[in-house]
């Protein structure tokens, strides 16, 4: 059998969410590479899986990936799991997968639990175009820049947020963009699963009402109230549009900038006419 690296998602709360195939793979591979061997040991014990474990976390990923690729080259089958959810989604594994691809080693991913997909699919926000942007930025300037990006976009944004920062982050949104649509999805698949949405002010109120509500794991979903009719043209796109319109017919300039930024041509053309 060809050596394969299996990317194996694990539950984000409810243990029943593991798949039959995930259990089979975890039982039959030679090694399981895990972010935290003690954490994964509890999951493996629950499903009577006795496979040997190797640690692979953000601090040893480079060196450990080389060792795991050597094992794969010897013909060993290896599964990669993270503490919860889908490996590589804000979790370690990128260097290993990339190295495997470079070396022509077979990599296959099993579908399974992922917190942001779970939150997004049940949020009621538009899902045809979305941007998953990992953890919401921590530094002040980056936080404001991110909110400006969301405010100028036509897509739904999904973030992870820590319990320590959930209240300050939502309070910042309430202060800077009070009309932005927001939702938090908390403790998904667990006993205290909860979705709170509306605008940021309402979420701040809910979080403050009972301090225990600020504990747990959170997904944050944001979307500007932009439609292609009322949208503001982002300043960067407007600058390019103005520069091109000096050299080209307005319609052509609008079309080029629309294609480049994924914006609406009519919106850009009108912006030029209304200048
Ligand atoms: N790989 C994981 C996945 O597939 O979702 C994400 C790992 S990331 C390091 C951990 C973050 O995901 C948490 O801080 C939280 O924001 C989010 N998360 C994980 N489990 C969650 C849950 N049950 N409910 C809400 N958010 C969750």
Polypeptide structure, described:
The mean pLDDT is about 95. The chain is globular. The relative contact order is 0.11. Helix 9 (about 235-245) packs antiparallel against helix 10 (about 250-260) and helix 10 packs across helix 11. The chain starts with a strand and ends with a helix. The protein contains 11 helices and 10 strands. A 5-stranded parallel β-sheet has the order 3-2-4-1-5, sandwiched between helices. A 5-stranded mixed β-sheet has the order 6-7-10-8-9, with helices on both faces. Helix content is about 40%, strand content about 20%. The protein has 3 domains: about 5-115, Tetrapyrrole methylase, N-terminal domain (Cobalt-precorrin-4 Transmethylase, domain 1, 3-Layer(aba) Sandwich), CATH 3.40.1010.10; about 120-225, Methyltransferase, Cobalt-precorrin-4 Transmethylase, Domain 2; about 235-275. The chain is an alpha/beta fold and about 280 residues long. The structure holds S-adenosylmethionine. S-adenosylmethionine binds next to helix 5, strand 7 and strand 10. S-adenosylmethionine binds near residues 86, 90 and 161.
Task: Name its key features.
275 residues, alpha/beta, Cobalt-precorrin-4 Transmethylase, domain 1, Methyltransferase, Cobalt-precorrin-4 Transmethylase, Domain 2, five-stranded parallel β-sheet, five-stranded mixed β-sheet, 11 helices, 10 strands, 42% helix, binds S-adenosylmethionine
């Amino acid at each position: 059998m060809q050596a394969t690296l299996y990317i194996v998602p694990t539950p984000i709360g409810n243990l029943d969410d593991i798949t039959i195939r995930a259990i089979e793979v975890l039982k039959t591979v030679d090694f399981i590479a895990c972010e935290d061997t003690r954490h994964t040991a509890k999951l493996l014990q629950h499903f009577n899986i006795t496979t040997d474990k190797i640690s692979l976390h953000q601090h040893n990923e480079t060196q450990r990936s080389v060792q795991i690729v050597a094992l794969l080259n010897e013909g060993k089958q290896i599964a990669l799991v993270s503490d919860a959810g889908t490996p590589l989604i804000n979790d370690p594994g990128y260097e290993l997968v990339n190295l495997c691809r470079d070396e022509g080693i077979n990599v296959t991913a099993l579908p399974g639990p992922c917190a942001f997909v779970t939150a997004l699919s049940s949020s009621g926000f538009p899902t045809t175009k979305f941007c998953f942007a990992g953890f919401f930025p921590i530094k002040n300037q980056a936080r404001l820049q991110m909110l400006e990006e969301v405010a100028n976009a036509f897509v739904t944004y999904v973030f992870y947020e820590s319990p320590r920062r959930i209240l300050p982050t939502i309070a910042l949104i309430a202060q800077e963009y009070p009309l932005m649509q927001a939702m938090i999805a908390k403790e998904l698949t667990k006993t205290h699963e909860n979705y709170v949405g509306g605008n940021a002010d309402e979420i701040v109120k809910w979080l403050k009402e009972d301090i225990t509500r600020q504990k747990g794991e959170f997904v944050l979903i944001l979307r500007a109230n932009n439609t292609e009719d009322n949208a503001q043209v982002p300043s960067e796109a407007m600058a390019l549009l103005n520069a091109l319109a000096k050299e080209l017919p307005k319609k052509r300039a609008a079309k080029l900038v629309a294609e480049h930024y994924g914006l609406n041509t009519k919106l850009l053309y009108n912006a030029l006419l209304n200048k």
